[in-house]
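Tokens for chain A. Residues wanted.
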């Protein structure tokens, strides 16, 4: 077993966790959402500066919660990518400083692997499995035939689903981040607007959300130009049906084709109530569906620690010359 201190700073949450022999002793998160809300999205420069301000406070709180410090750890883990380069850099420099000062091995962790392995806080992963990774920056279907084996079988060709939600929310006058307000309005609406489904009829597993975003923007613009009322609840329902429908369609087809034992949701958009409901309706029979707890859907360091626990067993350590990689692919997680 192991004692892991983990740091996550890929976007707009500064997070530190302590995982000891599989037990989460500390999971500290400092969110910047309120700061970025006024801009309608994450401002990278501001996010990086806030990470630099918050990392020390989060480390101190994690030490207080766990009654341990960096010198008590077996390893220091950190998100290396993907993410915003300046944000990643702050977390990595903190981790490298701790590893150097206390002579601890450094474990680089892939952010999306963290989202997938967050499901181990719910139960055991069963292979082969299909991970449905959906967030503000990523939309991927990842096949795992064994632990720490990642094969991307489908990904977005342009925008990620979470990014699409944020942009549509902005057009509709809803607050950032857009996922929750759209979901809330959609629950009260009906699918009455005709919004085309991107890549409809394609039999591969790739996604496209840029066209969906553009369709909603154009529809809202045209209705406004005509002086017609925009029924917000119905618009959100119509948009969300298409946005989540693409995910469910591809996940179901992939689960059947690859004969997986388990389908796991991962990433911030896995908190969406409509996506959870639809997945529960279609993933049945011998295939188990695992949905992460809401606290694990947003960025946190507990998920980074969970992956690091496995990487520690494999002694997959990095030199202190390690650099961040904002475009790091999950199937290349061993390459640094």
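Reply:
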């Amino acid at each position: 077993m192991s004692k892991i201190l983990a740091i996550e700073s890929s976007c707009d949450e500064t997070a530190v966790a302590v995982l000891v022999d599989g037990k989460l002793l500390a999971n500290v998160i400092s969110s910047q959402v309120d700061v970025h809300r006024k801009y309608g999205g994450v401002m990278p420069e501001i996010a990086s500066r806030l990470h630099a301000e918050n990392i020390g406070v989060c480390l101190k709180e994690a030490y207080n919660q766990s009654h341990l410090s960096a010198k008590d750890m077996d390893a220091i883990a950190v998100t290396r990518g993907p993410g915003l380069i300046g944000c990643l850099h702050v977390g990595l420099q903190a981790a490298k400083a701790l590893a150097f000062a206390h002579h601890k091995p450094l474990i680089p962790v892939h952010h999306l692997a963290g989202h997938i392995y967050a499901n181990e806080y719910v139960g055991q992963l069963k292979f082969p499995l299909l991970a449905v990774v959906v967030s503000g920056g990523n939309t991927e279907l990842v096949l795992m035939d064994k632990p720490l084996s990642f094969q991307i079988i489908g990904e977005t060709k342009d925008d990620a689903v979470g990014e699409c939600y944020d942009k549509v929310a902005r057009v509709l006058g809803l607050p950032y981040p857009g996922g929750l307000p759209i979901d809330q309005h959609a629950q009260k609406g009906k699918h009455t607007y005709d919004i085309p489904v991107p890549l409809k009829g394609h039999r591969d597993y790739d996604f496209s959300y840029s066209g969906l975003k553009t369709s909603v923007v154009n529809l809202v613009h045209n209705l406004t130009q005509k002086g017609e009322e925009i029924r917000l609840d119905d618009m959100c329902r119509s948009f969300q049906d298409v946005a989540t429908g693409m995910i469910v369609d591809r996940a179901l087809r992939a689960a059947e084709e690859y004969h997986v034992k388990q389908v796991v949701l991962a990433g911030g958009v896995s908190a969406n109530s409509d996506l959870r409901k639809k997945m529960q309706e279609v993933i049945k029979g011998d295939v188990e569906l695992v949905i992460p707890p809401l606290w694990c859907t947003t960025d946190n360091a507990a998920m980074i620690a969970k992956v690091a626990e496995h990487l520690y067993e494999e002694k997959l350590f990095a030199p202190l010359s390690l650099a961040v990689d904002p475009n790091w692919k999950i199937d290349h997680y061993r390459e640094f």
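The radius of gyration is 20 Å. The beta strands are 3-8, 13-20, 23-31, 75-81, 106-110, 129-134, 139-144, 151-155, 262-266, 288-290.
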